[in-house]
Amino acid sequence: MNSCLASSSHIAAVFLFHCLVIFFLTISNISSSYGGNNETDYQALLKFKSMITNDPYRVLTSWNDSFHFCDWGGVSCGKHHKRVTRVELISKGLEGSLSPHVGNLTFLREFLLLNNSFEGVIPHKLGHLSRLRILNLSYNKFSGEIPTNLSRCSNLRSNKLVGSIPKEISFLSKLNTLRLDANCLTGGIPPFLGNITSMEVFSANTNPLGGNIPHTIGQLKLLRKIQCSECNLYGTIPHSIYNLSLLTHFALPVNRLTGSLPLAFGAMLPRLVFLQLRINQLTGVLPPSISNCSELVIFEMAFNSFSGKVSIDFANLRDIYEIGSHYLHTMASYLHT
Ligand SMILES: *[C@@H]1O[C@H](CO)[C@@H](O)[C@H](O)[C@H]1NC(C)=O
Ligand SMILES: *[C@@H]1O[C@H](CO)[C@@H](O)[C@H](O)[C@H]1NC(C)=O
Ligand SMILES: *[C@@H]1O[C@H](CO)[C@@H](O)[C@H](O)[C@H]1NC(C)=O
Ligand SMILES: *[C@@H]1O[C@H](CO)[C@@H](O)[C@H](O)[C@H]1NC(C)=O
Ligand SMILES: *[C@@H]1O[C@H](CO)[C@@H](O)[C@H](O)[C@H]1NC(C)=O
Ligand SMILES: *[C@@H]1O[C@H](CO)[C@@H](O)[C@H](O)[C@H]1NC(C)=O
Ligand SMILES: *[C@@H]1O[C@H](CO)[C@@H](O)[C@H](O)[C@H]1NC(C)=O
Ligand SMILES: *[C@@H]1O[C@H](CO)[C@@H](O)[C@H](O)[C@H]1NC(C)=O
Ligand SMILES: *[C@@H]1O[C@H](CO)[C@@H](O)[C@H](O)[C@H]1NC(C)=O
Ligand SMILES: *[C@@H]1O[C@H](CO)[C@@H](O)[C@H](O)[C@H]1NC(C)=O
Fold it and tell me: Which domain of life is it from (predicted)?
């Protein structure tokens, strides 16, 4: 009887011990999966600062030991875990390069450095920041290639990036915004972009990309904006694009696109606000169905080889703000009635 009790309490003790072991193992698993600690963040921020060669507005002087790093200018932390979640240094005139140590800020969700003078490469380690949701490095002087593993939202406008759009970008199943405008990218609009079905905005204006628009673009059912002005694109506009009924911005001006627009254009893209195809080599008629794009605001179609009468009913397009009168005037002389 006693031995039974003894053994059952022994079993209970062993059981409790096992629970505790599992509990502590779980805790240690959790903390190790968090990757690093506040000391890592502190070191990473100091390294970031050490690579800044000019700070004209002295925004980084507050980055000193008189304050906890969570109170440094432009730095925000999580309330409880005190890890860096956001770095915002917009238009601060900062010069220098970007330390790869920022790849150690494992809790970083938003990283905004737009409009500074960062140069050199964008560290590949940024691609390891799995919590990063907003990355805006636009309007800097970054050069080299686009890192392979960018996160959900990548804003890399106006830098000096070269090479082609990396294939690894198509593994990012949650990327929704890719802005690459005003860089030196080549290699065309890659067909694998069609695999990023979360994409809502693709903008690559003013890059010497070249090539055709891949028909896989039609797989981006959530796409709202496609903007590729001055991208040296040629060939026809793939018909699959007219499946993207959520499109509000359809802007491919100043390229060498050929072929004609489908008659049902307006019925297929009813939400268009921006329609910009000026300066291409498009032929055929301007589809009258454009009259049904009732939200159209910007309409630029001049300098093409359209023929026939313009029978778009502009009276229907109440919100239209800019027809591009200069272009329309010129267009009139291009039309053969
Ligand atoms: C700890 O993590 C490892 C690997 O991720 C896993 O195999 C193990 O079961 C975890 N242990 C506990 C107690 O959660
Ligand atoms: C990190 O956290 C520990 C314990 O909470 C604290 O003692 C230490 O001062 C912190 N270090 C920094 C750099 O914030
Ligand atoms: C630390 O930052 C504060 C706030 O910007 C500044 O007043 C102070 O001079 C700095 N201390 C040092 C040692 O730079
Ligand atoms: C960019 O930053 C500079 C300060 O360095 C500022 O004068 C300028 O207005 C900013 N440009 C934009 C477009 O915000
Ligand atoms: C942080 O990043 C640097 C450079 O990428 C690396 O050498 C270092 O080991 C990382 N870890 C810590 C804890 O600083
Ligand atoms: C910076 O990027 C974010 C995310 O792409 C975007 O929401 C924001 O509008 C951008 N800011 C500027 C000034 O471009
Ligand atoms: C990209 O991310 C994946 C998954 O997080 C990782 O396995 C791979 O090593 C990363 N590649 C680079 C070049 O950072
Ligand atoms: C798109 O993804 C599928 C499945 O992962 C793959 O088989 C295909 O090669 C990818 N397409 C492109 C153009 O990379
Ligand atoms: C448009 O979408 C439909 C249904 O999703 C599909 O059957 C059709 O092949 C697509 N058309 C083009 C040109 O991609
Ligand atoms: C506009 O849409 C209506 C309804 O779908 C249709 O009857 C009409 O023919 C369309 N107008 C043009 C010019 O395509």
Answer: Eukaryota
Beta bridge partner(s), residue 298: 274, 322
Which letter, b or e, does each residue of 268-277 get, where b requires 16 or more Cβ atoms within 10 Å of its Cβ? Answer: bbbbbbbbbb
Mean pLDDT of 188-211: 94
Do the bridges between strand 234-236 and strand 256-258 make them parallel or antiparallel, or are there none, so unpaired? parallel
Cβ–ligand 6 distance for 136 under 6 Å, the answer yes
Domain boundaries, the chain: 36-148
How would you write the chain as a 3-class SS string? CHHHHHHHHHHHHHHHHHHHHHHHHHHHHHHHHHCCCHHHHHHHHHHHHHCEEECCCCCCCCCCCCCCHHHCCCEEECCCCCCEEEEECCCCCCEEECCHHHHHCCCCCEEECCCCEEEECCCHHHHHCCCCCEEECCCCEEEEECCCCCCCEEECCCCEEECCCCHHHHHCCCCCEEECCCCCCCCCCCHHHHHCCCCCEEECCCCCCCCCCCHHHHHCCCCCEEECCCCCCEEECCHHHHHCCCCCEEECCCCEEECECCCCHHHHCCCCCEEECCCCCCECCCCHHHHHCCCCCEEECCCCCCCCCCCCCHHHCCCCCECCHHHHHHHHHHCCC
The domain defined by 36-148 folds into 3.80.10
Nearest ligand to the C-alpha atom of residue 178: 6
* Mutate which of 40, 104, 121 for ligand 5 pocket (most atoms within 8 A of beta carbon): 104
Determine the average pLDDT of the residues in 207-231.
Answer: 96
pTM check: above 0.70: yes
Mean pLDDT of the chain: 84
User: 82 exposed, middle or buried (CB, 10 Å; 0-12, 13-18, 19+)?
Assistant: middle
155 lines ligand 6 (CB under 6 A): yes
Token output for 335: 């039309």
